[in-house]
Structure formats: structure tokens, C-alpha cells
């Protein structure tokens, strides 16, 4: 069976719960109540998706201006293709090269700042994020974050497992590809690679469209003036080059490079891969176990900016419900299977709103509870939570 991207079409519209959450004030009150500590209850786990990063300049996948919404034929490079084919890696790295500057300069928005504030209040026990932009660790380094799908800020060798900073890899790509560097420098300011906000043509996974329209097979033809994908060069793993690793058959890997140090076909190792879970690749077992443990240790989960289209995220929410924990959702559009985990007769909270607008107000509402002692034991409960 060929691999496919799951759920590229919108999900059904959400059902707001409780009914009072139809207004902004009602949404804030419902979320503040949901997040307020209960006696003898564990903290809240936050599960986030690409919608949280939209105000920072990165698009989501399934929102109104998401990658799948605007480019119906968009098709990423799949993991098996990346591992097996030099040409697929050339395409991936060329697009990633153009998209990286926008990813590197992106900054946490008010939604991320609110997450940090919730951590400071003792409301959150941790974060599990599907995002690969590393904005959570930047926004709240003291609040534990599990990057379910990895991070664009690292590269890892497929042969020896050595990690390398993505910024250093970008420097090498510039050195090896002067024509591409010149092309990127010639792009208008609204295109990735220039000091302006990232436009919709930068995808959430950090690659960039060379032109807005895609071919029927999902690939994207280079825009006029762009070098061809097959000219793009990328470096080999320096560790493997210095000391070739053993292969499964016991022989030494052969690492071939050209005169400039670029990886060459015919090599049997030394390929660097972005530190993200690519389409068709499984989540790292250690990361999966850590995420499951975070769910098991939490009293409830709040989903922010995610449609839960990927199984790796949906299963965590399902796990919370299966153990009897409540689920809250803050998302503009519909969410996979939300009627199974939140609603009338089930509990939880479902609001429609922008995280960067709703979450800061929720933080202020919770702070007022700390200062004013709203609710039964609210003052003591929140202060006790903050001290944990």
C-alpha cells in the first residue's frame, strides 16, 4: 500500500463545550476552570501543534492558509525516498536550504509566552509538541518539553548517529552551492531567506516552495532563474569521513566525496538527515515512551493548535481519555475524533480561538484567582501548585 498523507481535507466543524464558551469571555472562563488545580490531582499536560506557531510566521498544515489547504498537490519527500535516493535528498536539501533562514529567525509569539507563564504558575507539568521549530524550548526552557517529531535545528548521521547543528550544515550548503546561494540572495524580500516574516511558501517542516503551483505528482518545478535540483550538493558526515563506521555485514562503510567535500553517489554511508520525523518514519521509541509517561503522570491534557491528524498525537489524547482524564481543545478548525474525547456527557472543554489571543487572557484569569482566591480554596490551591 502506498504511503499517503493523513487527513488533508478539513475535519467537521467543532461543537463548542460548554455552551457558555461560544464567547471569548466564556472561553476564557471555561479554560481557566479546566486548568485550575484540583485537590489531589496531577498537573495539566499541554499537547501543541503547528497552529501555535502561525503568529510567529510559520504556516500550519490544515488551517485556512495551511500547506495542504493552499497547495492541494503538495507532497513532501518521504523517509524511504530520502534514505534510498540521492536525487530525493538533493530536492529535500535544496528546498530546506531556502526555508532554513525563515525557520532560524522565527521567534516565540504571545501564545508561547503564555505557555511559559502557565508553567510558572504551576499549572502545567510539561509539554508534548508536534512542532519541529524549537520554539517551546526557547520560550520556556525550564518547562519540560518533549519534541514528539524532533527538531529542525539538528542533523543526525544515518550511519553513526552523530548529531550536528543545523546552522553549521547551512553554512556548508552555502559553501557547496554558490549558484543556489546567489539565487536565494536574488529573491524578493517576501521570499524565505530574506529578513522579512516567513510567507506561506515556507512549510511547517522548514522546506520552501520555489513557486506557488505544484505539478500533479506533488513535486515543485524550480522557478525561472533557479538552479536545477540535480545540481544541489550536500556534505557528508565528517565523523564517518574521518572514521568510516561498520556496516551490518561487518565491512567498513565507504564514504566518497568530491574535491569540495560533498557527498557522492556510490557511498555506503555518511548521509546526514534532519532531526525530524519525516513522513513514513516512526517516532523514536524513547520519545514515544516519554510522551506516554507524560500522559500517565498528568491529570488532564490541553490540546492547542493541533487537528490531531497524526496518529502519534491522537493516540496520546485517546490514552488520556482511556485512563479517565479530561481533554481540553483550543483550535480554530475541526479536530480528529473530538466528539469521542470532549463534549456533553464526556466533559472537558472545546473552544474555538487563536492561542495567542486566548491563552494570555487565561493566564491573567488564573493569576486573578491566585491573588483574589476565587473559587473553593482557589488561592491556596494555585499557590500550592506553583510551589510544586
Automatic annotation (TrEMBL):
Residues of the Deacetylase sirtuin-type domain: 21-369
Family of the protein in this entry: Belongs to the sirtuin family. Class I subfamily.
Protein name: DHS-like NAD/FAD-binding domain-containing protein
A single MF term (Gene Ontology): metal ion binding
Active site: 149 (proton acceptor)
PANTHER family: DEACETYLASE SIRTUIN-TYPE DOMAIN-CONTAINING PROTEIN (PTHR47651:SF17), NAD-DEPENDENT HISTONE DEACETYLASE HST4 (PTHR47651)
Key word Zinc present: yes
Signal peptide start-end: none
UniProt keyword Metal-binding present: yes
Origin superkingdom: Eukaryota
Chain intervals for the UniProt region annotation (Disordered): 188-227
Keywords: Metal-binding, NAD, Transferase, Zinc
One Pfam family hit: SIR2
Entry binding sites for Zn(2+): 157, 160, 237, 240
SUPFAM superfamilies linked to this entry: DHS-like NAD/FAD-binding domain
Comp. bias (Low complexity): 216-227
InterPro entries for this protein: DHS-like_NAD/FAD-binding_dom (IPR029035), Sirtuin (IPR003000), Sirtuin_cat_small_dom_sf (IPR026591), Ssirtuin_cat_dom (IPR026590)
Amino acid at each position: 500500500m502506498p504511503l499517503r498523507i493523513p487527513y488533508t481535507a478539513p475535519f467537521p466543524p467543532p461543537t463548542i463545550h460548554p455552551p457558555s464558551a461560544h464567547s471569548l469571555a466564556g472561553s476564557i472562563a471555561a479554560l481557566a476552570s479546566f486548568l485550575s488545580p484540583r485537590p489531589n490531582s496531577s498537573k495539566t499536560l499541554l499537547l501543541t501543534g503547528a497552529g501555535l506557531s502561525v503568529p510567529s510566521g510559520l504556516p500550519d498544515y490544515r488551517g485556512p492558509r495551511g500547506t495542504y489547504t493552499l497547495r492541494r498537490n503538495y507532497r513532501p519527500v518521504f523517509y524511504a525516498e530520502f534514505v534510498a535516493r540521492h536525487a530525493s535528498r538533493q530536492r529535500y536539501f535544496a528546498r530546506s536550504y531556502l526555508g532554513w533562514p525563515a525557520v532560524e529567525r522565527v521567534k516565540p509569539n504571545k501564545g508561547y509566552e503564555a505557555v511559559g507563564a502557565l508553567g510558572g504558575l504551576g499549572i502545567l507539568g510539561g509539554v508534548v509538541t508536534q512542532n519541529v521549530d524549537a520554539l517551546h524550548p526557547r520560550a520556556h526552557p525550564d518547562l519540560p518539553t518533549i519534541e514528539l517529531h524532533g527538531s529542525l535545528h539538528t542533523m543526525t548521521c544515518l550511519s553513526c548517529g552523530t548529531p550536528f547543528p543545523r546552522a553549521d550544515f547551512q553554512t556548508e550548503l552555502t559553501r557547496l552551492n554558490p549558484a543556489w546561494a546567489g539565487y536565494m540572495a536574488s529573491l524578493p524580500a517576501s521570499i524565505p531567506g530574506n529578513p522579512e516574516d516567513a510567507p506561506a511558501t515556507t512549510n511547517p517542516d522548514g522546506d520552501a516552495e520555489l513557486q506557488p503551483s505544484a505539478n500533479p505528482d506533488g513535486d515543485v518545478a524550480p522557478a525561472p532563474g533557479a538552479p536545477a535540483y540535480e545540481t544541489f550538493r550536500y556534505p557528508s558526515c565528517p565523523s564517518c569521513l574521518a572514521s568510516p563506521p561498520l556496516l551490518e555485514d561487518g565491512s567498513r562503510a565507504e564514504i566518497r566525496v568530491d574535491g569540495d567535500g560533498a557527498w557522492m553517489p556510490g557511498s555506503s554511508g555518511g548521509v546526514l538527515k534532519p532531526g525530524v520525523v519525516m513522513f513514513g518514519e516512526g517516532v523514536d521509541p524513547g520519545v514515544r515512551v516519554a510522551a506516554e509517561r507524560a500522559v500517565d503522570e498528568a491529570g488532564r491534557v490541553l490540546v492547542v493548535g493541533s487537528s490531531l491528524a497524526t496518529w502519534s498525537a491522537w493516540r496520546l489524547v485517546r490514552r488520556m481519555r482511556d485512563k479517565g482524564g479530561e481533554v481540553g481543545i483550543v483550535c480554530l478548525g475541526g479536530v480528529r475524533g473530538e466528539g469521542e474525547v470532549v463534549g456533553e456527557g464526556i466533559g472537558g472543554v472545546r473552544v474555538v480561538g487563536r492561542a495567542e489571543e486566548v491563552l494570555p487572557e487565561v493566564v491573567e484569569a488564573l493569576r486573578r484567582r491566585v491573588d483574589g482566591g476565587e473559587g473553593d480554596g482557589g488561592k491556596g490551591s494555585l499557590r500550592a501548585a506553583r510551589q510544586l
